[in-house]
Amino acid sequence: MPEGPSIVILREAAAQFAGRKVLRVSGNSSQDIDRMRNRKVLAVRSWGKHFLLQFDGFALRIHFLLFGSYRINEDKGTPPRLSLGFSKGEVLNFYACSVRFIEGDLDDSYDWSADVMADSWDAAAARRKLRAEPGTLAADALLDQDVFAGVGNIIKNEVLHRIRVHPESRIGALPPRKLSELVAQARDYSFDFYHWKKAFVLRKNYQVHTKTTCPRDGTRLSYRKHLGQAQRRAFWCGTCQRMYG
Questions:
Q1: Predicted confidence (pLDDT) per residue in 176-202, tens digit
Q2: Same domain, 154 and 187
Q3: Beta strands 58-63 and 98-103: pairing type?
Q4: What is the mean pLDDT of the chain?
Q5: Per-residue pLDDT for 38 more than 90?
Q6: Cα–Cα distance between 57 and 54 in angstroms, integer?
Q7: At 66, which CATH number?
Q8: Is the pLDDT score of 142 beyond 80?
Q9: CB count in 10 Å sphere of residue 9
Q10: Percentage of the residues of the chain whose pLDDT score is greater than 90
C-alpha cells in the first residue's frame, strides 16, 4: 500500500494536469466516472494516502489499497480502473485502486493538519489526540490516519526503531519526551522516506522493515505477521526497543 510520501510524489508528478480539461474518460470503475468529461481539473492535491483531483463542486479521490498503481502518459498493459485523457495525447491511468467522489469543498472533508507531510501539520494536535487514547499500542497509534495521515507500515516500523520504542508499548506509558519523539519522527521519517524514494534508495535505508538483524546491536529482530488491532506486520529489536507499560 503506497504511504503518504509516495502519494506526494504522485501529486508532484500529476501537477501538470492542474488547470487542464479532461477530454477522455474510461475505465472499469463502477462510479459515474463520465461526470469528469469536459471538466477542468482545478487542483491536484493529496491527504495522507489519498490522491485528490479537485473539480468545481466535487473531487475525485483515489486510494491505492494494497496493490494499486498508476502510470502517467503510458499504459501498464492491463485494463485501468480509471483513465483520464488530456490534450496532446497525455493520460493519467490508475489501476487496482478505489475510486470515489467527494461532493462539495474538500476543506469540509479533510483535516489538513493531520497530514504528516502537509505544511499545516499540527504536532501539538497529534499529541493531544494520542494522550486521549492512553491504552492504544504505539504500533496502532502510528497507523491511525486521524492522527498521522500518510503513515503506513514501513514508516511505523522504522519510526519505532528510530526512537527505541517497542511496538506493543502503551501510549499512556510513554514518557512525555518519548511521546514527543514519536510525533516528531512520524513526520521526519516521512520526509526521509520521500527523499530516499525519489532517489531510488528507499529499501537500502530500511533499518528493520523486512530485515533480520538490528543494525545497532546485532540482535536478531523479532517479527510478527499480525500485531495489534491493525493486524499489520511488525519488525523490532528486543534489545534496543524498550517496552513501556
A1: 999 999 999 999 999 999 999 999 999
A2: yes
A3: antiparallel
A4: 97
A5: yes
A6: 8
A7: 3.20.190.10
A8: yes
A9: 16
A10: 98
Count of domains forming the chain: 2
Q: How far is CA 215 from CA 20, 107, 208, in A?
A: 48, 43, 8
Please say if the pLDDT value at position 61 is more than 80.
yes
Give the domain CATH number at 194. Answer: 1.10.8.50
CB proximity list for 99: less than 8 A, separation 6 or greater: 27, 29, 31, 33, 60, 61, 62, 81, 82
Q: Domain range holding 124?
A: 119-236
In a domain, 244, yes or no: no
**Burial class of residue 42 (count of CB atoms within 10 Å of its CB; 0-12, 13-18, 19+):** middle
Is a pLDDT exceeding 80 seen at residue 1?
no
Check the CA dihedral 114-117-120-122 and report its sign. positive
> Do the beta carbons of residue 33 and residue 61 sit within 8 Å?
no
Alpha-carbon distance of 237 to 245, in angstroms, equals 17
Q: Where are the alpha helices (DSSP H) in 56-152?
A: 123-131, 138-142
pLDDT in tens, 84-132: 999 999 999 999 999 999 999 999 999 999 999 999 999 999 999 999 9
Residues 6+ apart with CB under 8 A from 91: 24, 71, 72, 73, 74, 75, 83, 84, 85
What pLDDT sits at residue 14?
Answer: 98
Q: Which residues of 79-92 are buried (b: 16+ CB within 10 A; e: fewer)?
A: ebbbbbbbeeeebb
Helix (H) or strand (E) holding 223: strand 222-227
Task: Give yes or no: residues 187 and 135 share one domain.
Answer: yes
Could you give the C-alpha distances from 86 to 16, 37, 56, 82, 215, in angstroms and in order? 11, 10, 17, 13, 48
